[in-house]
Write a structure and sequence with these properties.
single chain, 123 residues, 4-stranded antiparallel beta sheet
Length: 123
């Protein structure tokens, strides 16, 4: 059974940085796509970034491109989201997700989810 456990959220000020971690277990993830999504109150879950676990190919939403970086450490089975130049509109619960096969930006295509970690950016 795939398990994803996020950590690293918190309360920061605008312009600060945070690094989220997603510890994955239960499978060999070489044929998986790992992604980060976020959900603000009363909004739909939003794609942030994904990484193909085997190749390291990444893709970002326009709203975070140039500020956020997704990466993975195969030895630790961990995916990271480095978030720089944070803005109040980045405030949300951030979720790690995984799916087998093709990359996708649609949260409904992901089978496995972590419990989420809160990121709050004050102005």
């Amino acid at each position: 059974q795939v398990q994803l456990v996020e950590s690293g959220g918190g309360l920061v000020q605008a312009g600060d940085s945070l690094r989220l971690s997603c510890a994955a277990s239960g499978r060999t993830f070489s044929n998986y796509v790992m992604a980060w999504f976020r959900q603000a109150p009363e909004k739909e879950r939003e794609f942030v970034a994904f990484i193909r676990y085997s190749s390291g190919i990444t893709y970002y939403s326009d709203s975070v491109k140039g500020r956020f970086t997704i990466s993975r450490d195969g030895a630790k089975n961990t995916v990271y989201l480095q978030m720089n130049s944070l803005k109040p509109e980045d405030t949300a619960v951030y979720y790690c997700a995984a799916r087998f096969g093709n990359s996708d930006r649609d949260f409904r295509k992901y089978n496995y989810w972590g419990q989420g970690t809160q990121v709050t950016v004050s102005s």
